[in-house]
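Quick question about two entries, pasted in order.
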Amino acid sequence: MYQDYIKIQFSKDSNIAQILDSLMESDDILSIEESNSAFTILDLWENREKLIKKLHEVFPCEEWKTSKLEGCDWNQEWIKGFQPIRINQNLWVTPPWQLNKIPENHKKIIISPGNAFGTGTHESTYLALKLMKGLLIPGDEVLDLGCGSGILSIAAMKLGAKRVHAIDNDPEISDNLKDNFKQNELEEITWEIRDILDMNSFPCDLALINIQKHIILPLLERFSVANEIPNRVILAGLLNVHRKDIRNALQERGYKILNIRRKKEWIAVSAVLRRKNET
């Protein structure tokens, strides 16, 4: 279900930079990330042979490091084996065994990793949580599409949502999802197991969609024939290379982008439906 990516890193060098820029202009590579010490190329795993062949042509004497970026459920990736993480001034995400580290008067999103979890964190969910603080209005009705652990659903309720309905197509999340809602004393959150691409209506003020591009794009396409669509959306689980495609898809569906936040190679996007007379 989840797409994998190839990640190629070069040491930082002005000559390498010029060649990579020309490859970007000719559409031979999709994305270049620049850090203090390296240039990083990201592309779909299925394109790796063509990409590596091209790099050997233009860099016959250079060395680079290649790794595979596994596709996964970004909500679950973010909560694997973590220490408490502060989302804003008084909102934290924590496993139950770290509750004593959170100030008493602060809000807590308590998440128990399930059997499918290992260790680590993920930028995608962090970015979605950051965008929620500025976009969710107290009293909102919220859909969490591709809810995974339920972390975004819980955050929405903690930030003042009136009602949240969570949906995922994986029946294996059920026990973990119920457990997380119970630990946060939010068993009023409703949820179901179904394919969001089969839905005909998306009645809500705000939709939280932290999945991947190959699900998000057909979902946005489905908005064009749906009976009701969200007034506001947060999209996450996206790489920076997807920025143009996501911007175009949102504009075609009548949404105006409000904010794009980035952390490393990942982005999250917030948008609102344009008013009828708004350009």
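Here is the second entry:
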Amino acid sequence: MKKDWLVGFLVWMFILGIQVVYGAESKVLAEVGPYKLYEEEVEKILNQDPQVQEILKSSPEAKEKIKKTLIDKWITLSLLGLAAKEEGIDKLPEVQRDLINIEKQILAQRYLKTKLEGIKITEEELKDYYQKHKDRYVEPEAVELKHILLSLPSDAKKEEADKVLKRANQIRAQILKGAKFEELAKTYSDDPNSKGKGGSLGVIKRGETDPQFEAKIFSLKPGEVSHPMRSNYGYHLIKVEKKIPAKALTFEQAKKLVENDLREEKEEALMKELIEKLSQKYSPKVY
């Protein structure tokens, strides 16, 4: 039922919002009176819509069912639309306003798309932008670390939490006396993804984990083992293997980021210029 409800809204989306350029060989999947549903419209939803992609990720076999549902819903909508026209509903003032707004949205999107596609960026512009904003393009500081997790429900009672905390402190004491962190991780850790690797979590960069947790991790010295740290998963003992300092990205490493940032700035500047010119031409009024 949830999927059918979602697909129903997707039909509205591609009828009102998605714009597809049809070639001479465009395949018609369905036809109702003057309305035609083209394969490109359905394929665009199947291949690009995040909600559909989420469904297909967990249930790839659902693709044909979703496609059929889209077509069926489109036919239903088209039949209702024809019936509405036959009864003159399209001539009602409130419906006319809605149709004007839909037309305006589609035209505005196409106009803006055409203008933005005209933006060109040269290699020289990219290099100049990179030089002026080098401080933006930095690989953040990182740490390579291992952990031992003693799991504990987030809503655990104090007695249970104290018991797990005591175990964590006992394990830490063994490490401080010379026991190998990696062996104790294999024995005691409740993290199935890392315990077989001696607790290794690999490299974590600044900004990739909870800020409060991050502050504690990055305050540790290489080889140092933290006191037990509580999270939603339980208590952690963290060992920092090494610290990786922040480093500036070269132009080639940052090129894609530079292009995205410069394009965004150019788009914003173009939008501002367009709105100023169009406002002078059409003199909008607010009452």
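Reply: Residues 2-87 form one domain. The chain is about 55% helix and 15% strand. Hope that helps.
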